[in-house]
Amino acid sequence: MSWRLRLERSVTPSRTTVLLVSLLGVVAALVFAVPVFWAYKVSPWTAYTTIAQRSLGSWAGFMEVLRRAIPLMLCGVGLTLAFRARFWNIGAEGQLLAGAVAATGVALFTKIPAPWLLPAMFGAGFLAGALWGAVPAVLRLKLRVNEVISTLMLNYVMIYIVEWLVHGPWKGKTMRGFAYTDFFPAAAQLPLIPGSRVHWPTLVIAVGAALVVALVLSRTRLGYEIRVVGQSTDAARYAGIDFLKVMVAVMVLSGGLAGLAGVGEMAGVHYRLRSPTHISMGYGYTAIIVAWLARGSPLAALFTALLFGLIFAAGDIMKASLQLPAQIVGVFNGLILFFIIGSELLLYWRIKWERGWTGKPGSSGS
Amino acid sequence: MKALRWTLVALAVFGVLGLAQAKLKVGFIYVGPIGDYGWTHAHNEGRLIAEKTLGIETVYVESVPEGEVETYIDLLVRQGCRVIFTTSFGFMDGTLAAAKRYPNVIFAHCSGFKRAPNMMSYMADFYQVYYLNGLMAGALTKTGKIGYVGAFPIPEVKRHINAFTLGVRAVNPRATVHVRWIYEWYSPPAAKEATEALIAEGCDVFAFTEDSPTVITVAAAKGLLSFGHYSPMYDFAPDYVVSGQLVHWDKIYVEFLKGVLEGKYTTKNLAHIDYWWLLSQEAVELGAKPGMVINPKHEAALKAVKVKTPDLGEISVYDLVYARLAQMGAPGVSFDPFQGPVKDRKGLLRVPEGFWLSYDALITMEWAVEGVVGPWPGEP
Fold first, then answer.
1. Under the phi-then-psi rule, with left for phi > 0, alpha for psi from -120 to 50, and beta for the rest, what region is A146?
2. Which ipTM score applies to this complex?
3. CA of B88: which chain A residue's CA is closest?
4. Chain A closest-CA separation from residue B186 CA (Å)
5. Do B290 and B276 fall within a single domain?
């Protein structure tokens, strides 16, 4: 006789369970990061207290967390919507850059009068991101192209478009031959919270977007259709839902929100188009973890975005104040993602110990 | 005694600033990783030498995205850094904004052109060294085609390719320099691809702007010669690396920080301080590795090629390299690669006879000299 481990599929977990298990995953990641600090001869206690003091423990630090969270909120909220419809959008990075390109085009090459310039940039950025997001949706439904591949590949296409623009037709006359566009005029720059680098209008838009997406999901016909498509394609087909319409709508919103993030980075941080790797610090990819951790809830994505904003800001602090190497942020992101995905097991499966016979020779039980 | 004097000076400086710190704390913000074997690696070597020489405390941050420089400056200032170096062109506007925000901190920005009362600019430039490498490349090519793998078509790289080509054509007026752009500062795969394409085009000697020794190893595998870039790359192909460009950022860092410690440089008087340091300030060096100006394996070949020059008569390329090196290395510089007449490849006279190029013309150079072959984005 012996004890045996059995996994049993559990019913839908409660909200508290999800929160607790996710928190457990984050804590486990922080515990497993301890040897990394030891390897660099930094006391983990000093490390975490320094990070806490310089990020959440000070006004300037908290503002940095907030600034880093803004693009993650917009991309993350959009991705929760896509993931709810089981559309695996890996392309928020490219959709963000599409928004950045559109914002730059409007800021530098149109004559829209001052009060309308910023709204026009946000509008153009939304449209560009939406377009870049809708292409894979159409490809999937018309040609059965796997959206993981197409959204991912379109990121690279957009990266090269940005490189081409800053080295070619949009290269700034005032940049002495370096690969940047000219600076945006003052009317195309977002106001900041005084004493910080937080472009608050984008933050307001991000929170508003989360509310709108939450309402769409819970209170509209489109939201109902998205939920049905996400839960069972058969049921959706049976209910006569138009897949193309739903998928394109989802990706117009998802890509459009990522596009807005790109506008915010342009008009609030950089004020000019530059090399794509310096525009987005992989926000579009990190937003995948943000949306995953939020378990498909757009409102929760605001908070998980703040968590990853904190991780980005903590990475800055670890590099500058603790003299740790640049790869440290990647290590932290990786650990957290690993434990969050690992915690899925705890959420949807219950571990059971049972007493039973193991197949000993001669025994009849199996 | 010297140490005591420095200490006293430092104490005096801090007394004036009202700071209780014993050591000057200096921060460095790098755009790449310190292990890149190129730009950032070289700056970090300079930082370490400055720290040892001056007994100061230094901290650094690597791989900082250009748009994030202000965030990192904030963190370094909060840690007590009184001097901050930022080492990428893309950091310029962020550094200037921070300089206005922190009037009591000294800033130094590398490779740009904007300054403030508390922000100086500095650069160690290679164009003279590229010219000297060009002289050797022109003498050593058999096919008359020299390959150049360029990072980005920006004025700095264009200036270097032009100087290199002028050197080539000074000894071999019919030779051409074939350019391939890879649009990366560090990318061994792209550099390999470009080198192989240039080999297929018939190039047999190579120079490059990229932060890895890829061009050297790919060329050497085919038995072709090359010139090292930025770090000592002799060891990657001892038979095939003829010479190269080496940098000594420590010369600038030590000199400037000495000035800060002595009180010569303050937060009030940097608006016109621009270190544009070349061979004569020893910020750059000609060589395959420190101390080895020309690889001895190739000395005989360079001595065998004779050229006629307007000022030195008939002379071997080997002697010509040393002669020009001496002219540009001595404090009263008496030769410049871009001394007129210089025409661009469209036939326009860019530098008339008897003139040298101004600093502004050098750092904004977009045109290509005669002898450059291949795409040239932004060519006027």
1. beta
2. 0.84
3. A178
4. 14
5. no
